[in-house]
Amino acid sequence: MSCRVWTADRCRCSTNLETISVYGLGRVGLVTAVCYAKKGCRVIGIESDQLRLEQIRRGNSPFYEPGLTNCLAETIKDGSLVVTNTPSLSSEAKICFVTVGTPNTSDGSVNLNDLRRVLSTIAMLRQDDRRRIVVVKSTVPPGTTRHIVKPILERETRHRFGLCYNPEFLREGSAIHDAEFPDRIIIGGEPLDSAVLAEFYKKMHEPNLPKLILTNYENAELIKYANNAFLATKVSFINCIAGIAERIPNADIKTVADAIGLDQRIGSSFLNAGLGWGGSCLPKDLQALVTLSKRLGHDPKLIEAVIETNREQRLKPLGAARRALGALKGKRVAVLGLAFKPNTDDLREAASIFVIRGLVNEGADVVVYDPVALQAARLVFDNAIEYASNAQTCLDRADCCIVVTEWDEFRSIPPAVFVERMRRPIVIDGRRIYDANEFIRAGIQLVAVGLGPSVPD
Ligand code: UDX
Q: Which residues are known to be catalytic?
């Protein structure tokens, strides 16, 4: 990285590297800030939550994301990333990325309060006419950039801002890689503003620059929703076929998914049948899309079916446990995996929440284990369930085990361990991580998503 000499207040850099600011250091903002700091930008990260800010300042990530803590500590240490709750320190920045959360309200519409607040702050800080571009990355309904963001920027200052909408497609668990190597970059905005942002990305991502798609605000906003809706649709589709496969002797969704995925028109990703999709984005964005669509007078039947399929899918282990054990009251059920997917500690809309709530409601004694999400789970379930310190002890004396998240460390548990530790070796493989034949041969009663009953010729 090129040499940096900071003045006393660490706000000016002697290099002519780009200064950018990132408002909101959540999962998207912090990864974006660290990624561009590593690529040679001088980044000012603005975060209003004092606790989170202090943690980041010490070089600790407030959430689990593989590789992030190392990069964060490095960029904080070398001064390429400065984090603050004082927005005025970012007035130098030519490009202001806005990455604040846009959660859904109870009626499914999108809460833009944080976005509005940050935009007013950015506009009020504006004191000169040097070119500045505000880049909104937060997911917002189509029309928001033109009809809400732009007027706020114009209302608060007489100076003109450039404005782009630039959706983010980072996945939790591989966010650093995704930030470094995006599949494509979508920029919505007026041609002159988009050209400035495109130039920034060219500098940052050469020689791995992906396709840049320059379009208007509305298309860029809709692309984000359509993208997530399509991913969720693929998962709900394969889970629907899995439900059919479960009723066909000798059928196996894995073989079916592998084969249809080889059709290039379909593609192999997002065809893993399991306990459905969760997380901070897909559920919220699909709900927001339904609300938007209805408001526009269009009946979003397909998206509603995708959501409903997912709602049922997450509850499937409860039915399977009841069928295997009878009444669940007093039965000890081990749950392996809590995070909504591996490599994250995020429990938002995780299948585990729905499964565990169902088990607890039916009086089961639930014991759980997850490599990184136990702390988050304690905040949700407190002492309603038991927390094991590793996967093997989680299985001790269990009447049934449900695999909810496909962490690698669960894949390597040999069937003998289930047989030795559990009271009854009943395994519900919600993510298809085990070899059915091997488990059945070991004497395990295996119920697996998308696996039909085995019937010999
Ligand atoms: C998603 C989008 O992928 C990303 O582009 C956007 O920026 C944020 O939302 P993320 O929430 O990290 O990313 O999760 P993702 O990897 O998309 O998985 C979503 C859910 O689908 C998870 O619960 C996962 O377990 C499930 N899934 C995914 C399946 O059940 N089967 C699959 O084949 C793929």
A: 281
pTM of the complete model? 0.94
| Ligand 1 atom closest to 175 (CA) | 12
Write out pLDDT tens, residues 172-218: 999 999 999 999 999 999 999 999 999 999 999 999 999 999 999 99
416: how many CB neighbours lie within 10 A of its CB? 12
The ligand 1 atom nearest the CA atom of 167: 7
Contacts of 7 (CB under 8 A, 6+ apart): none
Q: From the CA of 240, how far away is ligand 1's center (Å)?
A: 17
| CA 283 to ligand 1 center in whole angstroms | 10
**CB of 280 closer than 8 Å to CB of 175:** no
Secondary structure of residue 152 in the 3-state scheme: helix
Whether 290 and 300 have beta carbons less than 8 Å apart is answered as yes
| Tokens linked to 338 | 């809590």
- CB-ligand 1 contact for 28 (6 Å cutoff): no
DSSP structure string for 243-289: HHHTTSTT-BHHHHHHHHHTSTTT-STT---SS---SSSHHHHHHHH
Using DSSP, state whether 105 is helix, strand or coil: coil
Q: Which atom of ligand 1 is nearest to the CA of 28?
A: 7
Tokens of 355: 């499964």
Partners of residue 447 on adjacent β-strands? 428
Residue 167 near ligand 1, beta carbon < 6 Å:
no
Q: What angle do CA 111, 112, 117 make, to 5 degrees?
A: 135
